[in-house]
């Protein structure tokens, strides 16, 4: 009898090459996109708006035009810094167990990611349950405060400063980020983990760019557009990661 779940073996296998696991990459890309408005816009939006405002304030009024405003909102070095942090976290998490007899650990990591994606999906559908769900949008006392203080000392008017700001803010506590890292760690290779986290990070970019272009109003517009889709994507990710974990345990 044909194993109908055989395709799951290729999605997230230990030692997988970076080119493997297209379904996992797509899942993390969509998870980043779904969470970028309902979640990232609220957490990182102020940093995005602050950078855009600083850039526009330095441009002479005679040079201001729609093209300049749009280019100022892209914040390429900032997003490059965030993606660098995400890729490094994914590579470190996956490399930690690479080449070792991990047993059921990859399956447990996938289950942890599935649980966090499931929790965030349910929290979107039933906000009253959020206090009892493990969304993990918190860190030890002083962690987030320390990251923000470090970010405040960076000269974000320069490319290098904006890049470092993105690197620093990539460490802000975020349950969706932890879920993505858990899934990336199960790839079993540094390159695979980095690629998985790059996919997740790229998914978060459009929503934050929209906030930079149109301010907080963009967040509200995007929120209306994804309020139905986001829970479905997050719950779908939970099902996919759970199925991959089940396949490993089976």
What distinguishing features does this structure have?
globular, mainly alpha, 250 residues, 10 helices
Structural class: mainly alpha
Q: How much strand content do the residues show?
A: under 5%
Number of strands: 0
Q: What's the pLDDT, averaged over the residues?
A: 75
Rg, Cα atoms, Å: 19 Å
CA-CA gap between termini: 16 Å
- Order of SSEs: HHHHHHHHHH
Q: What is the molecular shape?
A: globular
Total count of domains: 1
Helical fraction: over 70%
Number of helices: 10
Taking pLDDT < 50 over at least 5 consecutive residues as the criterion, the unreliable ranges are 1-20
Mind describing the biggest β-sheet?
none
Draw up the topology in text.
Blueprint: H1 22-57, H2 66-74, H3 76-95, H4 105-125, H5 143-152, H6 159-169, H7 175-185, H8 190-214, H9 216-226, H10 229-249
């Amino acid at each position: 009898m044909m194993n109908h779940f055989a395709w799951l073996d290729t999605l997230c296998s230990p030692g997988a090459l970076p080119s493997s696991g297209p379904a996992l990459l797509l899942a993390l890309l969509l998870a980043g996109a779904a969470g970028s408005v309902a979640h990232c816009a609220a957490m990182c939006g102020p940093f995005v708006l602050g950078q855009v405002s600083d850039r526009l304030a330095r441009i002479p009024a005679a040079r201001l035009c729609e093209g300049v405003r749009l280019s100022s909102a892209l914040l390429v070095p900032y997003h490059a810094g965030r993606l660098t942090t995400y890729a490094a976290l994914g590579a470190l998490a996956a490399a930690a167990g690479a080449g070792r007899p991990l047993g059921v650990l990859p399956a447990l990591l996938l289950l942890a990611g599935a649980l966090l994606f499931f929790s965030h999906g349910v929290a979107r559908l039933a906000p009253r349950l959020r206090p009892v769900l493990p969304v993990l949008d918190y860190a030890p006392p002083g962690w987030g405060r320390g990251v923000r203080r470090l970010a405040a000392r960076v000269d974000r008017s320069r490319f290098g400063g904006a890049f470092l700001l993105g690197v620093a803010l990539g460490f802000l506590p975020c349950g969706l980020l932890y879920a993505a890292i858990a899934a990336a760690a199960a790839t079993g290779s540094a390159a695979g983990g980095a690629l998985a986290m790059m996919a997740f990070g790229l998914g978060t970019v459009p929503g934050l760019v929209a906030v930079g272009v149109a301010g907080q109003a963009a967040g509200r517009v995007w929120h209306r557009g994804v309020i139905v889709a986001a829970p479905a994507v997050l719950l779908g990710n939970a099902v996919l990661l759970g199925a991959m974990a089940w396949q490993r345990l089976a």
